[in-house]
Amino acid sequence: MTESVESRLSARNITLPQAAAPAANYVPYVISGSLLYVSGQLPMEAGKVAVTGIVGRDVDVASAQRAAELCAINILAQAKAALDGDLERIARVIKLNGFVASDPSFTDQHLVINGASNLIAELLGESGKHARAAVGMASLPFNAAVEIDAIIEIA
User: Fold this and answer.
1) Domain count across the chain
2) How far is CA 26 from its chain centroid?
């Protein structure tokens, strides 16, 4: 892919938000050597958690996938802040860890986290293909339906 990440964001009508400040005693990202670790991101939109509740009970798969997309957008916002605005420094998304607030009978966490994986791969091409975990949780902070963190190799 020869297009820039910013042009692919624009083509999808995605504007990265201002990177959110942490909600507790941690930092939003850490750079160690050539790795960028992005703390867990919630499905924030317009300054609030956009998708809340338990997937498989209060939230359907399509809405949860949208929540995962919002998490991915917020991961990219944190990466942009960490990389002084230059998303082209992303060499590879190494791993996404996806956490889904799930009803005990819900077993499609992998489909939910596809919302983030598909978007990251679309925006970053080959560099966006990553390893991943998709895990069910009893609950998440602020009653969010999804939370995702990331490990990214940077140039």
Assistant:
1) 1
2) 18
